[in-house]
Predict the 3D structure of the following.
Amino acid sequence: MIGASAGGVEALTKLIKELPSDLPAALFVVLHVPEKGISVLPQILNRAGKLKAAHFREGEEIKYGHIYVAPPGRHLLVKRGHICLTPGPKENGHRPAVDPLFRTAARAYGRRVVGVVLSGALDDGTAGLMAVKMQGGVAVVQNPEDALFSGMPSSAIENVAVDYILPLSEIAPILVNLANQPVEEDTEKPISTEMQIESDMAELEPDALHQSDRPGKPSGFACPDCGGALWEISEGNLLRFRCRTGHAYSPKTLMTQQGDALEEALWIALRALEENSALAERLAKRARDRNHNKTAEQFEAQAHSVLQRASVIREVLMKGDIQAS
């Protein structure tokens, strides 16, 4: 299971180039792409290496030596013996997202799973990689100093007991070695209730979506996507948030999404204040024209006061860093 975001095309290209055509494993790739966009990642990977890459199509069986790429607008999920695509709730603001792939693979295949986190901003992939480790799988992370964007690798290293932290050039040999090692499956290892529910949510299972008993505890924060209440989920040192409809966030992503929502609210407030000032000025001129000087002065004072408030908001927006402001 390989997850990447910003800088991921370059990282994936170099990694796939070094893998042999007879690799005894199947590769599943999630790269953050615009939901309504067109992804040409399979074509890029086909040109780069010896393995066959394609967007997954419903009904396909899992085959060794194949790379299954998540298409835009769908989560790529692994079930026992097959794969599925769902338009499930976004995780960390993305669909496809890395966490649902890692989490469902860990639930289905346990110790046979290797999770790989490559270059990317923020912290998608961390919760999924933790799920891989919880079920006995192997965690591999690109060295942040070697990544074009260090956010995703750094978050994974800070929160998960990673097995390998490697420069990109050393990841392919490790994957080949791991793929050739026999793994005895642990059929006794239980799956946590949280992992079960979150995997079912990504698959749009009605029972998971409609049940009132949610993992975690109410956080007091609202979901940036739907406005619903967010539940706070703690796994070891990792803190996450998920709402009733299934949208999920890691802390850095939630802060970023809140910053985006705040910026949008500030632009709306700025527009409303400037319109209010313009209306007050028009009413002041109208009063002056009718020699209602006292009324005109009141409207002029209101226009000046509103413009002062608008200038404060404009200054914050012009700094370009809403969270820091």
Q: What stands out?
A: The first helix runs from residue 8 to 17. The radius of gyration is 25 Å. The chain has ten helices and 13 strands.
